[in-house]
TrEMBL record:
It comes from the Bacteria. This is endopeptidase La. It catalyses: Hydrolysis of proteins in presence of ATP. Keywords: Hydrolase, Protease, Serine protease. Signal peptide: none annotated. It comes from Streptomyces xinghaiensis. Its EC number is 3.4.21.53. SUPFAM superfamilies: Ribosomal protein S5 domain 2-like (SSF54211).
Length: 263
């Protein structure tokens, strides 16, 4: 082998060592991402762990049929190591998503802090859902007391479904029927006390959770229609909503064969 070529080979070999080391670090080093997948769903009209999710006093609750299912995602913990191979795998799978860790865990440095933050978000979501539902129905919180219980779930994304559950238990479709029409309806969305519905994230995974648990209709915040359509499970109908009133009207129209919004 000529001297120059031999020297070049040695240089290339020497360069290959740090490159290989860098690639190994890239593959095995933890990255600032979380892996998420479809989580649990819960029927807010029913019970969870032996307790009614919605309990009403000061008014006679209706007997309801069908289901209103809130949806969640399940994500790797804040301390879980996520490597490049996990990220690449997640990009090519419809049943898993790669999400920036800060978007999944925006507050807290450890599991206890994050769980407390999520519980606080859930409590606030329940309070605003109650205010939105009673305001929609013209009921006074002094006369009607609503208690919401849902263990092991945190965050604000169940607000819309809580509010719809309260409306269904107190008023239904306003004519003696159920908002669900006997269907299994799932959905997601934050809610404000005046009934505005906001985005939540993770919608493609939540639609999969909904379909898995028997839903045929999914209520989605209107601004997340694109995300929901991208990987929509077959047989699941999307209904975009921007407000509690709009959601109630859409479900009523669905039952009566009226005009129903679509993404």
């Amino acid at each position: 082998m000529p001297v120059a070529l031999a020297r070049r080979s040695r240089v290339l070999a020497a360069c290959a060592v740090p490159v290989a080391a860098l690639l190994a670090v890239a593959v095995f080093a933890p990255l600032p991402f979380s892996l998420a997948e479809p989580g649990l769903t819960a029927d807010v009209l029913g019970s969870k762990k032996g307790e009614q999710v919605i309990t009403i006093s000061g008014a006679e609750p209706r007997k309801t049929t069908g289901e209103l299912r809130m949806t969640t995602i399940a994500a790797t913990g804040p301390d879980a190591a996520v490597g490049l191979d996990d990220v690449v795998d997640g990009w090519f799978r419809a049943d898993r998503a790669v999400m920036p860790r800060d978007s999944v865990y925006p507050v807290g440095e450890n599991t206890d802090e994050i769980e407390e933050y999520n519980r606080a978000e859930m409590r606030e979501s329940q309070d605003t859902a109650t205010a939105a539902a009673l305001g929609h129905l013209g009921r006074s919180p002094k006369d009607v007391k609503v208690t919401l219980r849902l263990a092991d779930v945190g965050g604000p994304s169940a607000g819309l479904m809580f509010a719809l559950g309260i409306v269904d238990k107190l008023d239904g479709d306003g004519r003696g029927g159920d908002l669900t029409g006997g269907r299994t309806i799932a959905g997601t969305g934050t809610i404000t006390a005046d009934g505005r519905v906001g985005p939540v994230g993770g919608v493609p995974l939540k639609t999969r959770a909904a379909k898995r648990d028997g839903a045929t209709v999914f209520l989605v915040p209107a601004e997340e229609c694109g995300d929901a359509r991208a990987e929509l499970p077959k047989g699941l109908r999307l209904i975009p909503v921007t407000s509690l009133e709009g959601a109630v009207n859409a479900l009523t129209a669905l039952e009566r064969g009226g005009r129903v919004p679509h993404c």
